[in-house]
Amino acid sequence: MFLSSIKASAGDRSPWGSFWFQPIGMRSISGMRVTADSAMRLSAVYSCVRVLSETFAVLPFRLYQRRSDGSRSLVRDHWLYRLLAKHPNEWQTPFEWREMMMGHLALRGNAFNVIVANGAGVIEQLLPIHPDRIKIEVMDSGNYRYLVTQQDGTTQPYARGDIWHIRGLSSDGIIGLNPIQIAADVLGLGIAAQNYGARFFANDAKPGGWIEMPGKFADEETKQTFKESWAKSQSGANRGKTAILELGMKYHELELNNSDAQFLESRKFSRSEIASIYRVPPHKIGDLDRATFSNIEQQSLEFVMDTMTPWAERWESSIETFLLFDSDELEVEFDFANLLRGDSQARATYYNKRFSMGSMSPNDIRIREGEQPIPEGNKYFIPANMISLSAAGQPQAKKGVRPAPQPEPGTEPPEDGDEEANPAEESGGARMQALAHAAAARVARREAAVLAPLAATLPLPVDKIGAAMRKHAEFVSDALGVSIQSARAYIEARRADPIHVGSVEQDIHAAALQKLERLALKGHL
Predict the structure, then answer these.
(1) Mind listing the pLDDT tens digit for each residue in 386-441?
(2) Which residue from 366, 411, 359 is spatially nearest to 380, judged by alpha carbons?
(3) Which among 282, 107, 103 has a CA at the least distance from the CA of 179?
């Protein structure tokens, strides 16, 4: 069970009090004794621990089953999902449990839970143990076990398999390093500065002074009596009242201020140092001296990627290694989607890019935004002008031109008049006829412009005409959206047509137009 008693406080020195289980702590160079509890009295430490704990506690827990095709499916009916996402134990919610575990890791570098499992090996509860009450004992065999101090002072041993141990940064692979002990000097300086500030303001923010006296006191007892009388008249309810001095005494106030001692600067430096220890952006703990509207968003993103992601990976790998069976083939993940949402404009840009590449449907986006799916919203779309890698390099139909029909394997292209009537084609026949005529007319004009100059010479330059027409075949294929084979067949048919010397462009255009229009509509002659 959770060994930290509710009724026992840090100062309770009774036999059942937690005082006797607390570490003595390290004495820093500043003279302050630093423990996890004393460090938490520093606002910077408390803020960092709270940021790490609460940020991790709000991450949704996901359990996935890996499929053979590489995709993953969400699992909700597994005991591990119920344990970590619903009921880790009898008295804690998942948020409270993870917040406390993360707090233990941030303050002590280790988090421990007693594993309570049934006869089938299914874990039913994870019972947290305060790290201060656990000692690791390395045995002669090289193995180790956990010694847990109970509330009555007795020690109970646990085997390695009975304790789920999450380690922070470790130097021996057995116990995580305590960040409070490592940073004791930095934290001690912060505690010393905080104590000085408390004493300073407890004295009404006024430094001490000295009293000048022309003569001297009769004896030491008289001097001590005067000092006590002065302190009584200027402390408590009498603070700030007018003092009355006798025997020619004069009061001199010391002209010492906090700016000279750079008190505030040392406090700010301490906060910055503590934030760097926990790798928390300063603005997360209220230090906005160097924060701007432009860099806070970037710092928040770096906090997710550089600070929280390693912690999540530490949890995920520990869960998969020590709580799951090897045969389960399950994957654990803490979802950072909510932390990476950004503002509405950034989310809209992100969704637009994912939608445009066909990786998100309208319903995928609505679900991410917490909205209900819509009918017909599970379809995926891509831009119409994009092609697959396998189709790259192949002739593509131009915009507004129907692609050439491809015959089934092992069949011959249909002869003229053999095509079966298609209602859809009949309904759009007029439009297709107009498009085919326009495309054919453009090609015929180009062909007439190429051949007319050659037809004006005598004898006919047959080689030049052949070369020009072969190059013209590529233009026919691209303009009409037909295969290069069909375009070359058209060129061969045109070469069989007589071209008389002196033919004008209109003649050549008229001779080519009919065949080109037919080619554009049917994809072959």
Answers:
(1) 666 566 555 555 544 555 555 555 555 555 444 444 544 444 566 677 777 777 77
(2) 359
(3) 107
For residue 288, the one-letter residue type is L
Residue 145 bridge partners (DSSP): 137
- pLDDT of 71 > 90? The answer is no
State phi, psi for 199 to the nearest 5 degrees.
-65, -40
- Secondary structure (3-state) at 497: coil
Contact 218, 312 (CB under 8 A): no
Asked if 56 contacts 308 with a C-beta cutoff of 8 angstroms, the reply is yes
Residues 305, 299: Cα–Cα separation, whole Å: 10
DSSP for 334-395, please give it: E--TTTT---HHHHHHHHHHHHHTTS--HHHHHHHTT----TT-------TT---GGGTTS-
DSSP states along 13-39:
-STTSGGGGS---EEPTTS-EE-HHHH
Candidates 311, 352, 375, 330; CA nearest to 111 is: 311
Instruction: Specify the pTM.
Output: 0.59
Q: Which residues neighbour 263 within 8 Å (Cβ) at sequence distance 6 or greater? A: 193, 196, 197, 200
The DSSP symbol for 411 reads -
Average pLDDT score over residue span 355-381: 85
- Residue 149 Cα distances to 22, 125, 444, angstroms: 11, 20, 97
| 377-383 contact pairs (CB < 8 A, 24+) | 381/355, 381/356, 382/356, 382/357, 382/358, 383/356
**Range in 106-115, 231-240, 498-507 the model is least confident about:** 498-507
Q: Residue 100: which H helix or E strand, with range? A: helix 94-108
d(CA 408, CA 355): 35
Contact criterion met (CB below 8 Å) for 212 and 250: yes
Gap between the Cα atoms of 170 and 108, Å rounded: 12
Q: At what angle do helices 429-455 and 462-480 cross, to 10 degrees?
A: 160
Residue 414: DSSP 8-state:
P
Ranked by mean pLDDT, the top range of 127-136, 276-285, 343-352, 390-399 is 127-136
Residues in a beta bridge with 144? 138
